[in-house]
Design a protein that fits this description.
heterodimer, A: alpha+beta, B: mainly beta, 37% strand
Chain lengths: 85, 402
């Protein structure tokens, strides 16, 4: 499936849109980390929680559960939501 | 994460009318100042006399860099503790003085807890210490929330070290996000005895000072003589807030400490700290963050006092920045402010943001939260500004290269 990558993670992927696979969000992150080592830990902490200011959208709906099921035709967007100076 | 430095070096001509025939101030090596800030890192390369400085940076523009340290054992491995507002914490490594950086394969992270329990996550690595000279690839890291980690492969992979991170007693002393330091409790001042790699110290804000003689198998607290905020129980390690602790390179049995409650000295094997800050001028006090020791004289140490009155502004007292030096182990202190702003300078200098080089005379370096980098080539007698307009400076370290 297509995954849109936010700019703070471009140092890993180099491009905004990448292909990755997985039956859940957790599996998708594992695949992204295989392709782009180090990316996952900057998004998900060691207790498998989404880091603060990290948001996931599947087919334009925000998802909070890392076990959320995914289908090959889904579109996934990683968004970094940070405010302040 | 590779980046190439774009700026060409700007060097002065090899002959200079400024140089004096003072052989003791000359060195075959060049000084480099490593500056970690809230928005990136800079390396300032000095000439042999430490008179002119070339800025190299920013590295990691926009990333929060808590510590940038050069490995003195190989003289080329740089470790940077990084995170951003969005991204989780990591460690970057360079072996070419920052021309290229490589991310650690496994940054410091706490053990995963069983389903249903609330586990801790490293927010940022705060402190980096190269291990003993006989452990050439090994490093220690202190984190926030407080944790102690070790790498045995030059900073590429990190594992929890010792029992501290999960030990219920240590956890009770560490407190929570509600306690102390604004951006999270800190594990810091990790010190390795140069005579024995099994002998370690570290400090926790809050949580006290701790020592092991058996490479982390067992620990004992070293808080006797350290004061706590009025009304709290000094017998409880949780209430102790060491800000910065240093071991004298010329005498590893002597430690100096800047604490939330004063300046202290400890001469081992004693376990009793002495509050040497009581001899500081009363209108200045002995509150502050950094502690700097002399590379060859264990009676000489420097502090940079902060206002710890009323609501704790933690700025230079009366807006008049000054370092203070003791030349007799803390019996007396002298003010060192020549060249610094005379007034209306409300500086804050954080615990990692002041350091010394190993030259003779010793060079001192400090960075302010308002982004100014200052140095003294003569042990604090006269100060000069190296750089202005940097982001908030978190840490300043020095190294010799070339």
């Amino acid at each position: 499936m297509k995954v849109l990558i936010p700019t703070p993670l471009l140092s890993y992927t180099k491009v905004r849109e990448v292909e990755a696979s997985g039956a859940t969000l957790m599996e998708l992150l594992a695949d992204l980390d295989r392709q782009y080592p180090g990316l996952r830990f900057r998004v998900i902490d060691e207790q498998e929680r989404m880091r603060p200011h990290m948001r996931f959208f599947v087919n334009n709906a925000q998802v909070f559960d890392m076990t959320h099921p995914l289908h090959p035709t889904d579109s996934v967007i990683l968004v970094q939501a940070l405010s302040g100076g | 994460m590779a980046r190439i430095n774009k700026k060409p070096p700007t060097r002065k001509p090899a002959t200079t009318i400024h140089s004096k025939p003072a052989a003791r101030s000359r060195s075959p090596r060049r000084a480099v100042v490593l500056v970690a800030t809230r928005k990136g890192a800079w390396l300032f390369h000095g000439d042999r006399q430490r008179k002119t400085w070339r800025a190299d940076g920013p590295h990691f523009l926009g990333q929060i860099i808590n510590h940038l340290v050069l490995d003195p054992r190989d003289g080329r491995t740089l470790l940077a503790a990084a995170k951003t507002g969005h991204l989780g914490p990591t460690i970057f490594r360079s072996t070419d003085f920052g021309k290229t950086w490589k991310e650690a394969a496994k940054p410091p992270a706490f053990a995963k807890v069983p389903e249903g329990e609330k586990g801790r996550a490293v927010d940022h690595t705060f402190w980096l210490t190269p291990c003993h000279a006989n452990e050439p690839q090994a490093w220690y890291a202190g984190t926030s929330p407080q944790g102690l980690f070790r790498s045995d492969d030059g900073g590429d992979t990190w594992e929890p070290f010792s029992i501290i991170n999960e030990d219920p007693q240590f956890r009770s002393w560490m407190g929570s996000e509600q306690d102390g330091t604004p951006d999270g409790p800190k594990m810091h001042s990790i010190i390795v005895d140069p005579r024995d790699p099994k002998h370690l110290y570290f400090a926790m804000s809050g949580g006290g000072v701790h020592e092991t003689l058996d490479h982390g198998r067992t620990w004992s607290a070293l808080v006797k003589g350290m004061e706590v905020v009025e009304g709290f129980d000094a017998a409880n390690n949780a209430f102790h807030d060491p800000h910065c602790m240093q071991m004298c390179p010329s005498n590893p049995d002597r430690l100096y400490q800047q604490n939330h409650c004063g300046i202290y000295r400890l001469d081992r094997p004693s376990k009793q700290w002495t509050r040497i800050g009581k001899s500081m001028p009363k209108n200045v006090g002995d509150i502050g963050f950094p502690m700097v020791v002399h590379p060859r004289d264990d009676d000489t140490a420097w502090v940079f006092p902060m206002d710890g009155t009323a609501v704790w502004p933690r700025t230079s007292p009366e807006g008049k920045p000054a370092a203070y030096v003791t030349r007799n182990g803390g019996k007396t202190w002298q003010r060192l402010d020549a060249g610094l702003p005379k007034n209306q300078a409300w500086w804050t200098v954080k615990r990692q943001a002041m350091t010394a080089d190993a030259r003779d005379p010793v060079g001192l370096y400090l960075g302010t939260t308002s982004g100014e980098l200052w140095m003294s080539r003569d042990e604090g007698r006269r100060w000069a500004c190296i750089a202005r307009h940097l982001p908030e400076i978190y840490a300043v370290e020095t190294a010799e290269i070339g």
